[in-house]
Amino acid sequence: MRLRLLTTAILLGAIAMPPASSASPLEKYRWKHRLLVVTGPDDASARRQRRFYDAAKAGMTERQIILLEALDDGVSSHQVRAAVGTDGHRFKVYLIGKDGHTAFASQTPISADDLFKRVDAMPMRRDEMLRDRSKER
């Protein structure tokens, strides 16, 4: 009887565990970085979003925002698009919080100022800013 229960428990555990390859490519960033995920074709909108990001690199670094582009037909781009739930046929940009949840999505590029306002209003970011201020004292 114990052997049967043990075997059943092992089998159920194996079924419940997803294969390593099915893990989200975004998972490695969770609790470490915010993500600005850009999907779609490598078109004018994608290039504009990249320029917004590059022009405000210091602010992006301060807020721990990483740009992640899924603009081609490669396996990693397909995985990123699947993780955010889009087919990639049209431009879309997603702000993913450190907790892994989508905080904002847009079908048009988002300016650095607008992005920073959204991020700075997030509870986790507000805590980070308070900690940074207390370190300065």
Automatic annotation (TrEMBL):
Superkingdom: Bacteria
Signal peptide start and end residues: 1-23
DUF4174 domain mapped to chain residues: 25-128
One Pfam family matching this protein: DUF4174
Keyword Signal: yes
Keywords: Signal
Protein name: DUF4174 domain-containing protein
Originating organism: Bradyrhizobium oligotrophicum S58
